[in-house]
Amino acid sequence: MQTRTWLTRWRVYRGLLGLLLLSGGLAPVPAKQSGMDPDGAVEPRSFVGVEGALCGQPEEPDGGRGGDDRGSRDDAHLEQGEWQATTLWQSDVPVWSLLVEDLLPALPGPEIVALDELGRAPLLFVPARFESRVVPWFTIMDGRWLGAAAFGDADPRREGSELYLAGGRGNLYQVVPLPRGGFESRLVWYIDDEIHALLLDDVIPDHTGLDLLACTLAGEIVHVIPSGEPDTPWRGEVIHTEPARVRQVVAGDFSPILEGREIVFVSLAGRCIHLGFDEGRLDTQVLWQSDQGLARIVRGGSSGGELENVLYIAGDDGRLVRLSRRPDAEWSGRVIYESEAGLRGAATGRFTSESYEESIALFGYDRKVVLLLRSQADGPFLSRTIFNDSDRGHWLAAAELDPRNATDEILVCGYSGRVTLLTRSDGGQ
After folding, report:
1. d(CA 188, CA 357)
2. How many other C-beta atoms can be found within 10 angstroms of the C-beta atom of residue 275?
3. Which end of the chain has fewer CB atoms within 10 angstroms, the N or the C?
């Protein structure tokens, strides 16, 4: 009798729920397809400002799958025995990008921000000796993919540096660590478009301080500027428009004849563009044109080094192009590597104890992490696969995270939903 009563109630509830759905009173929200690469989405446009507002900071103590985020060895996918792979975090959806910065100066070493398909941005603290639990510290929850991140002091009204995050909703978040722990997250600006890349650098000559640039799906590069008091809206000024989305942008002193620092970016239109200001006028130069989209760009070296005027650009066709500026200020490029599938991650660093003129790490849709090494300026590039991920790769970063060796570490993420740290215990060849 009791069973029949519960069955009757269930049928009534189910009928009421069906009526609500049909009438639109409880219409289901269409979900974005999980695993849809943000580098290849469909195009909206046009932007507005928004008042600064406090955003919630929901935490997920179990951090995605299953609750145990202990750093775990994953040597099964390694091809070179001197490298070790450690899973720092496992999400239940793809992780699109990573940012490695010293976000919390009171703590030793830099921290890692991972941006995933659900709009989460956990802060990962690399454990000492890679033996203790890796605890994700969730900063925001946007609800749609996040993929763009930048760190620096863009807001003169706040003390210290800020973390900026953006993605598929067009929301730009400012995340500031609080003195007694936790974060204050604020929605400071939004655009009726997707934001695919952020840059924070001193690149606008007539603007004081660092400049925050947001690159949109519609191809706009927008200078986002704080104005007034902390709770007033930020404003956006479009400085350049491309025929397709800008995927990544870097800054540097690339031209000896232009004032200040300039930017170079790559786009889905297959263009690598140099932008700089010449006596207040924006100067534009096409450095490379491909018949397929360009996905990533990385500088060859820091200011003053021999590779200061070298850029590497990775494309949807799996090619890595090396661009270099000659003494006459003209740029030339050549393909130095071809992958079987599109490239989605590139970084330079010191990845062996031997002295190499150039050293680049790559990651992409073929799931492989490949090192390109060249010992002499006019010598050939040698390639070496050091890791195979379980699914397609989408981002690669390099940083000094392990004090036990003399080399840089590599971080990768992508469709597997996993943030993997590649390190070597010997620091050797």
Report:
1. 43
2. 21
3. N
Indicate if the pLDDT at residue 49 is higher than 70. no
CB 337 within 8 A of CB 320: yes
Residue 393 has pLDDT above 60, yes or no: yes
pLDDT tens sequence across 150-169: 999 999 888 889 999 999 99
For the question of whether the overall pTM of this predicted structure is more than 0.85, the answer is no
The two structure tokens encoding residue 385:
């696969």
Taking residues 137-148, report their average pLDDT.
92
Q: Tell me, what's the pLDDT at 96?
A: 97
pLDDT greater at residue 144 or residue 64: 144
Residue 240 near residue 233 (C-beta atoms within 8 A):
no
Looking at residue 229, its pLDDT comes to: 73
Tokens of 230: 């902390």
CA distance 55 to 142: 9
The number of CA neighbours under 13 Å toward the Cβ of 316 is 16
Q: Work out the pLDDT band at 233, boundaries 50, 70, 90.
A: confident
Mean pLDDT of 261-285: 90
Nearest partner of 316 among 388, 390, 419, 244, judged by Cα:
244
